[in-house]
Every structure is written in structure tokens, then in C-alpha cells.
Design a protein that fits this description.
The chain has about 290 residues and is of the alpha+beta class. The chain contains five helices and eight strands. Strands 6-4-5-7-8 form a five-stranded mixed sheet. Strands 1-2-3 form a three-stranded antiparallel sheet, with no helix packed on it. Helix 2 crosses helix 3.
Length: about 290
């Protein structure tokens, strides 16, 4: 029978409740199938970005060394997690976080800090795009020792150009300088700076330059028992963000992936974890 509009009664009816439930069920099944796939694709993409970040920083290190007679960017005086272990002058062009970024065609980190302090441009942090940030890293979490987190940043100690006034500044970088690269020499005396030529390091293809580091103690179990807010790091701070591991930048510029267990439980001596032919943290063979 036709209605006043000339259409059948069936033509006016919508989906039945049963049909709607079936459609919703099908959509739910498709979503449940696609979400893990999309998540896996996202993580794979983030791995590529993180690896490329380190490669670009390696290009920056090589460019700096080319201009300075083979001397690689400086690690700083110390870890930066305490006032007595400050990194040195934040604006020092030799500092790795300034030099590598500049020679990779990016803004030196000190200039980024200054722009942030002046209210011109926020310093990159978790979720932002930067050569210093792994896209898989979340907001920083203070470790149980020496760390301070403020507004999504780890606060590290540095000082003014005259080395008279220590100051604590915002940082968010997911990579750290291998503190054992200079054979574990403690470099906290502002009257003496340890510089390093790439040609002086044995086995550049095995010697670690930068480490993808933890940004929160709980990135693995049991939680890391020290601080994570450091500019200089060792194998102890190596991350687990990418399927239980992360990336290392070697002195020759190549980047490789390793599981954390592979790094911290390797056959090397406990003081340096050197694995000849694979990973060399301490080319001088001395304990840090």
C-alpha cells in the first residue's frame, strides 16, 4: 500500500534496533582489530623519528669536529643534577646540547632557553617536535635522588659565563652524553676542561657518544633508583621506551637499537659494561 507521499511504508522506516546493534557490533569489532595495528604503526613511526633524531645529532657532532680540528662537542663539566655538579655555562658554544643542534641546522639549546625565559617561544617538552625529544617519551618524572621537575621540565644546574653564579634551568631532552667516553675523567674543575678528539678514541664504530635515556624511573621494573635529570649519563640510565630498549649513537655517526637487558646485563665488567666488538662505553677502560 502506498502512503500519501507515494512511498511504501517500508521506504519510510529506518534501521530496526536489531540492525543498529548489529552495525554497532561490527564497528566495534573493526575498531578492536584496527587499534592495535594503528598503535603498532604509530610506535614504529616514533622509532624511526627517534633514530633520525640521533642521526642528525651525530651529523651535528661531525660538523663541529670538522670545524675544530677533530675535537668533538664537549660533555660539560658534570651531570647537572646538583649545584656542585653543574654542566658549566649554559651558553657555551662547545656544550654538546648547543654545538650538536647548531651544526645540525637547529637552534642551540641555550638560545631556546633564552627565548622561553623571554616569553617568546616555549621550550620544547614531551609531545613536541625536536631533535632532543623522543616522541615515545612522556612527561618527566623525578627520580628519588637529586631531580626536580617543574611544569613538565627537569631542572638542571648550570652557571653564568663567569662561573660565579650557579642557576637551575628548564631542560627536556631524551638523550644524554656518554660520561665514560673520556675514560671516566671527572671534569668538575672549571679551571680545566677535558676535550676529546674523535681520532683519539679507540674503535669509533663501537664507542658510544649519545644515549637514549630514561625520562622517568618507572620506565622499567624495578624503578630506577637514582636521578634521571642528567646531561651526562652512562649505561645505567639507558631507556626501555621502544619495546624494552632504545637507541645509541656511536662516535662514527651510526645509530643502533639495543634491548636494555642486552646493555646492562652484557658480559662487560660491572664498572664500565664494555662489550668489545659491540658496545664500548669507556674506551680508556677506567671506572667512572
Amino acid at each position: 500500500m502506498e502512503t500519501a507521499t507515494g512511498r511504501t511504508g517500508r521506504g519510510l522506516s529506518g534501521f530496526t534496533l536489531v540492525e543498529l546493534l548489529v552495525a554497532i557490533g561490527i564497528i566495534g569489532v573493526l575498531v578492536s582489530i584496527l587499534l592495535p595495528v594503528l598503535g603498532k604503526a604509530r610506535r614504529a613511526g616514533n622509532r624511526v623519528i627517534c633514530m633520525n633524531n640521533l642521526r642528525q645529532l651525530g651529523v651535528g657532532a661531525a660538523g663541529y669536529a670538522s670545524d675544530y680540528h677533530g675535537v668533538i662537542p664537549w660533555e660539560g663539566y658534570a651531570e647537572g643534577d646538583r649545584q656542585i655538579r653543574h654542566v658549566g655555562w649554559w651558553g657555551d658554544p662547545a656544550q654538546w646540547f648547543n654545538a650538536m643542534l647548531k651544526y645540525a641546522g637547529q637552534t642551540p639549546y641555550f638560545d631556546q632557553q633564552e627565548a622561553d625565559a623571554a616569553g617568546m617561544r616555549r621550550l620544547p617538552q614531551s609531545g613536541d617536535t625536536s631533535l632532543m625529544i623522543c616522541p615515545e617519551a612522556g612527561p618527566p618524572v623525578a627520580g628519588p635522588k637529586d631531580d626536580l621537575v617543574t611544569d613538565g621540565y627537569l631542572m638542571l644546574w648550570g652557571c653564568d659565563p663567569f662561573y660565579t653564579t650557579p642557576d637551575r634551568r628548564k631542560t627536556y631532552w631524551c638523550y644524554g652524553y656518554n660520561t665514560q667516553l673520556d675514560a671516566g675523567v671527572e671534569d668538575r674543575n672549571v679551571g680545566h676542561r677535558v676535550t676529546l678528539r674523535a681520532t683519539a678514541v679507540k674503535g669509533a664504530s663501537e664507542a658510544v657518544l649519545l644515549v637514549e635515556k630514561l625520562m622517568a624511573p618507572g620506565e622499567f621494573d624495578p624503578p630506577f633508583s637514582s636521578g634521571v635529570g642528567q646531561g651526562e649519563v652512562s649505561w645505567k640510565e639507558f631507556t626501555t621506551r621502544h619495546d624494552g630498549g632504545g637507541f645509541l649513537l656511536f662516535l662514527d655517526g651510526h645509530v643502533s637499537y639495543f634491548k636494555r637487558d642486552e646493555v646492562i646485563n652484557g658480559p662487560g665488567a660491572p664498572d664500565d659494561r664494555n662489550q668489545p666488538g659491540k658496545i664500548i662505553w669507556n674506551p680508556g677502560g677506567k671506572s667512572q
